[in-house]
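Researcher: Go.
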Amino acid sequence: MFVKCCMPTILVSLDACTAETLLQCQRDLEQSVPELLRLCRESTLNLQLICTHRAGPNVKAECGMQLLDPSCKRSHAFCKAHKLAQVQSQCSLLVDSFVTGIIALSVGMQMAGSTSRMRDVLTDVLISRLDIVVGEPPDEDPDAAAYRDAVLDLCLGDTTDQGDDGMTTARLRRKQRLILSSFFRSSDLRLRRIQYVTPVQCSPEDLRTEIREQLVPALLPHRCPVFPRSRWTGADRAVDWVLLLALSFDLLSEVVPRWADMPGEPRPSDAQAASDTASWDDFCLALVSVGVQPAQQHMQQSAGEAEQVPEPTAAMDWSEFNHAMKKKAGHFARMHPGGALALFRPVLQACMETLYHCFWVSSEAFDKTHSTQNANVRCYRVLEELAGKSSLRFFDSLRSVFTSIPKALPKSALAKNMRTLLFTL
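Model: Structure:
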């Protein structure tokens, strides 16, 4: 006799996530299912396939249940989605400063009118870098064309999300790729100047209109997505948004500081001194804390004194906070993050593809798909995981990253520190 059932999960609020509380919650859940104990007693072989997060209380709770009921053979496996999320988190820590910059940029662009303002700045930057060629287009450089295709494959490749949102993103990316390939067919993305080929001479007003209505929406279709530190999905879209501007004529390093109303590029000595004396977080907190009394800012405790509760500080000034986020994004853009993020993106792609496959296998759509298809043998979740195809694809993707040479790298990233980062990732 084979019995299969779907047991609803009860959301319980706990004071502490200990092994004892988890054990009691699991026993209460099993006792809520009628006839479960009778079926177990009448069966000759009872198997329990358990999948939890690899935390200490979970392991201890399952060992305690095995001791309380030795009639069931338990197979405790750890959740693959949690493993992949931990891998992604560890990889993100290697480029944590750039991730912080992406978050600051996305938060700064959430203000009303920020995207429109950045598009205006991008239009001005593109026009200032144009070299207009009237007549037949020059012969295309094979090296420049290969680099352009590599950048578009990296930034506008196939999305890993298979839902409705993923289909919308895929259509938008195909449109972006067609427009960018048409505009940049005679340009080298590694340079700063942009060659614009036109068969006839056009007026400056018509040229500006064409760039503002076609090229700028392809480079900047929407505001920067938020890089989610507390969520497992969506990080790839934020990285792709930044990479497209960073690897296309290094537009990011000029557009974002001008959008943030920052002064000109500081001298190398000033930039080095600033990086040695204060970090990004100190810079942000110094701007946000404007208006706080000095006595509250420099509150200190002696070694022998008991801990005192600090006095309440001034109210949060959101205009200063938004200003700080924009300044932080400008400093991030001036660090030229394209090289490090171009190395980080393929590793993130391997994690995201396997993570979305785990979500697909654990979803109700997986059961509906395999129950309605015409097949002699139906596939179940247990069989899908035992086959290990997703794990093999994951390791194949990592092996291809290890053994291949990154093609979408700017010239500034061809350095020893980037090679060390690639090996660490």
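Model: Strands lie at 46-52, 72-78, 130-134, 194-198.
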